[in-house]
TrEMBL record:
Family under the similarity heading: Belongs to the peptidase S8 family.
One example of a Gene Ontology biological process annotation: proteolysis
Protein's name according to its UniProt entry: T9SS C-terminal target domain-containing protein
Keyword Signal attributed: no
Length: 683
């Protein structure tokens, strides 16, 4: 098929013999005019004017050694992938390094910004009035990649005031290194306390009588303040993995960020590399996205050879991003594009020179699909508000297109333009990693009172139990279900950083404060799948404590089998349903038993007790020879007696109390290790 837009031969995605290929944005830096190169630099250089790249290699160790020998920072991610932080002038040299196959530019992601505990049954996994258990995430590494941390917030200290943060890696430059000496203060990202809030939800400590502690309050934290560039993210996840494996501990990384720019099939080099890092005792949890009801996706299947459709994007603010992906995975081009500005009913087509400035055209090596990425900045747009593309395709060819949040929305002034929709909006850069657990949000709170005594009510926006109005929908173009599961993410109260720019201790989002040793710490509310994500991250830490060798596949199997469904859950928005931490723990214990994993530490309680008025559930944390359960009145008379022979790990015994009269009773569980007695008042 003849292309309407023909790019210069020098920038076509084919490398010279013996040289590595560059992606379209990197080729622009090499071959396009200075004006075009400047535009490309704006989107792929970091704050230090450094080019961050992901390198596909035949031998990553040798490639990293070569780059370091030339004086630049480089990291081995695995045998097939490396990263580097270089000036553009080094690209020509890097292309010719032995073993380098393909060099990708790094994309930047964006952040995706109590009743949470009750709704997920995670309160059933911590000591409390309803249940007692040893599962608190102890011995599990929880990595939080984010922005806006208060490093020594009281939520990250133990009862003696010692930091629970095992390591900190503040990515403020390519030469920064991790430290185990945790300073006071915080990072300088203007992220509205996002990282502090997220870390508090996943792993915050119990603080006095405050209910705002995390899902895994005794887990070990690694904080990674990050620019959220894909190359940096690979290095940060690799660091958490290596740290945990060195200590022989399971790990889980929280990714409350993402982007709509990408193939949405999990086959890009970033997603595939992260997926390879996961495995036994290593999990990734990511936010699905907050774009529900936003018209940020469009698609079309061509039915005849001369079929032509129009996409029109309306500018929100200063820039427009438009990412178009053909779906024929054959390394061929089946689409031709003709871009234009649109005003009234008039199309003003871009010249070839103008098109070269804003279009980055490629065949993605991971999925072999054609990709057309437009980036129009405010200088290029000028007074133009609408940008359109005529697309012609081969019969049977399908394409999907996305804009980015705040960088354009699909607009259909009449029937000649494709309509946008809110499908296929789970995020790349996190949720769409093939085996990552992608988390949507549902509502468990719709009002609260802030530190000023003002009651904030959002009842009509956050119906109790409903999926949150912002929570992005699937489906996903890869294999598997995205989102995977839903967790509470609306009006979640957690730790708040006083070091965030513009912080006010009487701000409307601050709920309470706590002072210890003349230092005041704050707690406030936020909402988004960014908040639902660490709920699941913390729950994964609890399950990993019970089953340290749990794989991503097993975690998803548990989620599928134990999550709850109701009138609000749908596959496209909540995946397998709403996560249930207690039922999932039970299945994790059973899996650990079936696979021959060693028993939990001997000092831990042998049982988990779920105490309710009509029954008590007794969950065996380890296999035992025998357990005797008795219900006695205050005089010692036995009301009920039950003996369990050889209970296995994860086995549950139900003690029915419906036929017990109102009064006070003692329930005791006698095991070879100990006797556990608890008072129970039947109402």
């Amino acid at each position: 098929m003849k292309h309407i837009i023909v790019l210069l031969l020098s920038i076509l995605p084919f490398a010279s013999f013996g040289q590595a290929r560059l992606d379209a944005r990197l080729r622009a830096l090499e071959h396009r005019p200075a004006q075009t190169a400047r535009r490309a630099q704006k989107s792929i250089y970091d704050a230090n004017n450094t080019l961050n790249v992901i390198i596909e290699t035949e031998n990553s160790s040798k490639v990293v050694e070569s780059i370091k020998a030339d004086g630049f920072a480089s990291f081995k991610i695995d045998t097939r992938t490396a990263t580097a932080h270089i000036p553009a002038s080094y690209l020509k040299t890097l292309k010719n390094v032995d073993g380098v196959r393909f060099i990708h530019s790094s994309r930047k992601n964006r952040l995706l910004t109590n009743n949470v505990r009750n709704a997920t049954n995670v309160n059933l996994l911590h000591n409390g009035t309803d249940l007692e258990t040893p599962f608190t995430g102890k011995g599990v590494i929880v990595g939080i990649i984010d922005e806006g941390f208060e490093y020594r917030h009281i939520s990250f200290l133990d009862a003696e005031g010692n930091s629970r943060v095992r390591a900190l890696w503040y990515r403020h430059g390519p030469d920064s290194i991790p430290t185990t000496e945790i300073p006071t203060g915080g990072d300088d990202y203007d992220a509205g306390s996002h990282g502090t809030h997220v870390a508090g939800i996943a792993a915050g400590s119990k603080v006095g009588a405050l209910p705002y502690y995390g899902m895994a309050p005794e887990s070990e934290i690694i904080m990674l303040p990050s620019d959220l560039e894909n190359a940096d993210l690979l290095e940060e996840i690799s660091y958490v993995k290596q740290f945990a494996e060195t200590e022989g501990k399971p790990w889980v990384v929280n990714m409350s960020f993402g982007t709509l720019i990408g193939p949405h099939d999990g086959k890009d080099v970033f997603s595939q590399t992260v997926d390879r890092m996961m495995g036994e005792g290593g999990l990734i949890v990511a936010a699905a996205g907050n774009e529900n009801k936003e018209m940020l996706h469009a698609s079309h299947t061509f039915t005849s050879p001369n079929d032509t459709v129009n996409l029109l994007v309306r500018k929100n603010y200063d820039e427009i991003y438009l990412d178009i992906w053909g779906q024929d995975a054959d390394s061929c081009r089946h689409l031709s594009l003709r871009p234009y500005f649109y005003s009234g009913s008039t199309k003003t087509y871009l010249t070839e020179t103008q098109t070269e400035e804003v279009l980055f055209e490629d065949i993605e090596p991971g999925n072999k699909k054609e990709n057309y990425y437009f980036h129009l900045d405010k200088d290029f747009l000028g007074s133009n508000r609408y940008f359109g593309v005529e697309i012609c395709g081969d019969a049977g060819t399908t394409f999907h297109a996305w804009t980015e949040t705040d960088c354009g929305i699909f607009h259909s002034p009449d029937a000649s333009f494709l309509s946008g929709d809110d499908n296929y909006l789970t995020c790349d850069g996190g949720a769409n990693i093939p085996r990552a657990i992608a988390v949507g949000s549902y509502n468990t709170k719709n009002s609260l009172t802030n530190i000023n005594g003002n009651t904030l009510s959002y009842g009509s926006n956050y119906p109790m139990g409903a999926m949150s109005s912002f929570s992005s929908k699937g489906p996903y173009l890869g294999d598997g279900l995205k989102p995977t599961v839903a967790a509470p993410g609306a009006l979640v109260v957690s730790a708040y950083s006083k070091y965030t720019p513009g912080f006010s201790k009487t701000g409307s989002s601050i709920v309470t404060s706590f002072t210890r040793n003349n230092e005041t710490y704050y707690f406030g509310f936020k909402g988004g799948t960014s908040m639902a994500c660490p709920v699941v991250t913390g729950i994964m830490a609890l399950w990993l404590q019970a089953f340290p060798q749990m794989t991503p596949e097993q975690a998803i199997e548990i989620i599928e089998a134990t999550s709850t469904k109701d009138a609000y859950t749908t596959t496209e928005q909540s995946g397998y349903g709403k996560i249930d931490a207690y039922e999932g723990l039970k299945m994790a214990l059973q899996m650990a038993e079936a696979t021959g994993i060693a028993s939990l530490q001997s000092g831990l309680s042998p049982v988990t007790l779920l105490k309710r008025q009509d029954n008590w559930k007794i969950l065996f944390n380890n296999a035992l020879d025998r357990a005797e359960i008795m219900v006695c009145d205050p005089c010692g008379r036995i009301i009920k007696r039950h003996v369990v022979i050889n209970p296995s790990r994860g086995e549950e015994t139900l003690i029915n109390l419906n036929d017990v009269q109102a009064g006070t009773y003692i329930i005791s569980i006698t095991t070879p290790e100990r006797i556990i007695s608890r008072k129970f008042i039947k109402k």
